Fold this sequence. Notes:
The chain is of the alpha+beta class. The protein has a 6-stranded antiparallel sheet with strand order 1-2-3-4-5-7. Strands 6-8 form a two-stranded antiparallel ribbon.
Amino acid sequence: xxxxxxxxxxxxxxxxxxxxxxxxxxxxxxxxxxxxxxxxxxxxxxxxxxxxxxxxxxxxxxxxxxxxxxxxxxxxxxxxxxxxxxxxxxxxxxxxxxxxxxxxxxxxxxxxxxxxxxxxxxxxxxxxxxxxxxxxxxxxxxxxxxxxxxxxxxxxxxxxxxxxxxxxxxxxxxxxxxxxxxxxxxxxxxxxxxxxxxxxxxxxxxxxxxxxxxxxxxxxxxxxxxxxxxxxxxxxxxxxxxxxxxxxxxxxxxxxxxxxxxxxxxxxxxxxxxxxxxxxxxxxxxxxxxxxxxxxxxxxxxxxxxxxxxxxxxxxxxxxxxxxxxxxxxxxxxxxxxxxxxxxxxxxxxxxxxxxxxxxxxxxxxxxxxxxxxxxxxxxxxxxxxxxxxxxxxxxxxxxxxxxxxxxxxxxxxxxxxxxxxxxxxxxxxxxxxxxxxxxxxxxxxxxxxxxxxxxxxxxxxxxxxxxxxx
Length: 471
């Protein structure tokens, strides 16, 4: 018994210590599957590649330690395919993972747009399911910064930032390759179960090990690339997001269930990852506060989401979570599809509740109460009088015309008419009593007349029978 109690206490303490330690995440932590594919490293690899085929090969090379994704949960690295979709002078280069034979999930997308002056603008946009909304990496362009968004950079006084012009981007080898006149659009020929013969999947690393390896690379990443808050390609939403993007319900379900959280279970392995970097890249400078700007990816993405949400709120659009909605179009041109449908539904329901349902109930209640009050105050006595008068008149008509049966049995009730006259309660009761007495008297007279008419008919019948016998 004591042994069991001791074991339980130790397990609780270990779990608590691990949880507390694991909660101390660095600024680059997102808490989403995209943590295991560093888009800064992907952008750097793209800049150094000569063709899209070579870029796909390097992306899936185990020795580069860029791809650490396992979206389908089979404990093996997923192969990332690269496919180019051309829209005029814009190349939309999609990075995609096949989860099985039937489901695929986009990981990120490059938008490479050639402008009229020959310069090129490039962005790498992480898929919102894996990175949250507006996680966009681009070169630090030599341009006037947007006063509304300059990124979440701190301590940049003594750090040298490498700025890039769109003309320099146009000179990247892979960019020159895709804009060659004889360029054949690249579409990866690999799919689920059919991969390059030299490629073998490996077991994914825990995130802290993966992050520890890339930690000192951020010295290069942050002085060449930056986060941005919106796509530059104006047809991004129309062309890619609605027409090309592949998304897997399985990935959303696994995120919701917390299946990707296991990758954060070994925070102590970060030191091992840093040691591997030092071993493989001894000449690379190490990341320090003096040579690397501090960029909070989480704050930047969260702030851009808050900006978009506040703007959407002013315009009447819904506020959505950055990780749960497929629902979802991005700022400016994006993420308005499902969210708009949800908003219209909620608004319609709200309108039905506020402008239709409650006033309807009030109206019905008011009308019923008013009618009942009028019937009781003004129409009830008059209705009784009408019924009595109508019955008496009809019965008298039937008697005088010789149609006693029909007239005596017909009790037509006149519809009560609302009278505008105002009677006192005493006068109403007296008139009611008088009318009831008159009704009883007329009923007695009618019954007597009916009896007499029946006797007369019987006498006639008896006389006729006697006469017939005599004959």
